[in-house]
Amino acid sequence: MTVQWRKSSHSGGVNDETCVEVAGLAGVVGVRDSKDPNGDRLAVSGAAFGVLVRKIKEGALDLP
Fold it and tell me: In 3-state terms, what secondary structure has residue 52?
């Protein structure tokens, strides 16, 4: 199975330190660092990913 990773539209240029990619997998959403595609990956439920995206959009996870 080939996984189609998509880079976040909010990720910056080549040297940006906040590059994230996501992929729809069998019943979960995969998340990885686009600068280290062979590194660790996180798999979360679609519902949990939705909550994460909502909190990010609300600014609830912004650092002070």
Answer: helix
19-43 pLDDT, tens digit each:
889 999 888 999 998 888 899 999 9
The token pair that represents 53 in the structure block: 């995206």
Amino acid at 14: V
pLDDT at 8: 74
Gap between the Cα atoms of 51 and 31, Å rounded = 14
7-34 core/surface letters (b: 16 or more CB in 10 A; e: else): eeeeeeeeeeeebebbeeeeeebbbbeb
Query: CA Rg, the chain, in Å?
Result: 12
* Average pLDDT for 4-19: 73
Q: How far is CA 23 from CA 39, 46, 48, 53, in A?
A: 15, 11, 14, 14
